[in-house]
Amino acid sequence: MNIEILHRPAYAVADVHLANGECVLSEGGAMVSMSDGIGVTTSTFSRGGGGAGALLKGLKRMLSGESFFLNKFTASKDGHVSLAPTLVGDIEHIKLDGTKNLIVQSSSFLGSSESLEMDTQFGGLKGLFSGEALFWIKFSGSGDLLINSFGGIFHVDVDGTYICDTGHIAAFEDTLSYKIKKVGGWKATILSGEGLVCEFEGKGRLYMQTHNAPEFGRLVGPKLPPRKQ
Amino acid sequence: MVAMSANVQIETKAKGGLLGGLKRMVTGESFFTNTFTAEGAPGTIKFAPSAPGDVEVLELRGESYLMQSGAYLAHHGDIEIDTKFGGFKSFFAGEGFFLIKVSGNGTVFFNSYGGLKKVHVDGSYIVDTTHIVAFPESMSYNVEAVGGLKATFLSGEGLVCRYSGTGDLYIQTRSAPAFAGWLNPFRRVEQKKN
Question: Distance between CA atoms of A57 and A50, rounded to whole angstroms?
């Protein structure tokens, strides 16, 4: 698998080149185009390829409002699949080598190689974005991972303590511990417009996005005609 | 039009008469077209599309291209702009019934939502219908479902267009319907009357 990222930073698209027999997993709806001879299968979970366990995990996600489908693109001859996120922004290619796990915010996940273990059970920051249907996926093992950002993507190598707005987190290494806090006192929480923040502690890399997607939705959404219930 | 030199004159007309204007409207273009002419001295005009994205130039030497509605920006030279019924298959792809056909000799400026990617095809190539910007009329295409039945309903990939032949396809790296779908939950919910 060879990955090329084009049209950075605002309109990034990832061209995933696959050799015969190779495959890539992606978030549902991410496929822009592909060459002839790529087969597509859809599942609710990446590992195991079916069975009661996988089905149960899929159902669990649906019940919690997390409709998360994975598409598996398999090449029957050398070719490529182009993947892009919905919002304007960048893509970053991260190689995991098994020494560190990465926790990715669900809307920042674009694609991965099948060799990575995906775990959506992780609920450490659950309920944080109530109504936004966001959750977190923990990736472990070794392989390629593609994450996307709303706006630009940048990382901070945390060594000690670091504070990040929850809506700007794209991913972080699980060597970091975290806690959700309100910013300042109650007065600051209510009046500052900063809401909740995440306080990271330890040593590890934090990937951040320059824009906050739910904030943008709340800016534009109310200006549109109301929708029917 | 974004800006222009003071000596540029605009003439607005419904090119092709009432029918021509109406045909343009079904592709989401304007009923009227503007002709900009520099008078007395050279001048500059700036054009920009409404969505964030790229603008690309197509030099036509007698061939024809089909464009997704909304992709046409401007042209100069001997170019004919026509509306082509894309068939019911394009309707099922959620893209409306009509495509814009540009042909002749001259330069066409067109735009995309997101980056514009040129893909040279020799054989067969598959594009999500909402990511298509422009393709040569000489290429044949078919709208089809992706993968099996389960993939069609669950994959979120909707319908794809399979192109066959030889030529350059123009693809956009973002999808306007997908963005609208993302924004939808942020709309207010209509209050029931009484």
Answer: 10
Q: Residue ranges per domain, chain A? A: 2-223
Nearest C-alpha of chain A: how many angstroms from B136?
17
CA closest to A33 among chain B residues: B127
Q: Pick B173's closest partner by Cβ from A11, A36, A71.
A: A11
Q: Name all domains of chain B by residue range, CATH numbers in brackets.
A: 1-46 (no CATH), 47-184 (3.60.160.10)
CATH superfamily of A2-223: Mitochondrial biogenesis AIM24 (3.60.160.10)
Q: Hey, is the C-beta of A82 within 8 angstroms of any chain B C-beta?
A: yes
Which regions of B112-185 does DSSP assign to beta strands (E)?
A: 116-128, 132-136, 140-145, 159-172
Whether ipTM > 0.95 holds is no
Nearest to B131 among A32, A41, A227 (CB): A32
Minimal C-alpha gap between A118 and chain B (Å): 18
The span from the CA of A58 to the CA of A54, in Å, is 6
- Spell out the per-residue pLDDT of chain A, length 229, in tens: 999 999 999 999 999 999 999 999 998 889 999 999 999 888 765 333 333 345 455 545 444 434 467 889 999 999 999 999 999 999 999 999 999 999 998 889 999 999 998 887 655 554 454 444 457 788 999 999 999 999 999 999 999 999 988 889 999 999 999 887 777 666 655 555 556 778 899 999 999 999 988 889 989 999 999 988 7
Amino acid occupying residue A76: S
Name which of A8, A31, A62 to mutate to probe chain B: the one with the most chain B Cβ atoms within 10 A of its Cβ: A31
Q: Is A77 on the interface with B (CB under 8 A)?
A: no
Contacts of B174 (CB under 8 A, 6+ apart): A11, A84, A86, A87, A88, B53, B113, B114, B115
User: Which of B128, B154, B188 lies at the smallest CB-CB distance from A226?
Assistant: B188
Subunit contact A28:B157, Cβ cutoff 8 A: yes
Query: Rg of chain A's alpha carbons, rounded to an integer?
Result: 18
Distance from CA of B69 to the nearest CA of A (A): 18
Q: Give this prediction's pTM.
A: 0.85
Q: Which residues of A touch B181 (CB under 8 A)?
A: 86
Q: Return phi, psi of residue A171, to 5°.
A: -165, 160
A40 near B CB under 8 A: yes
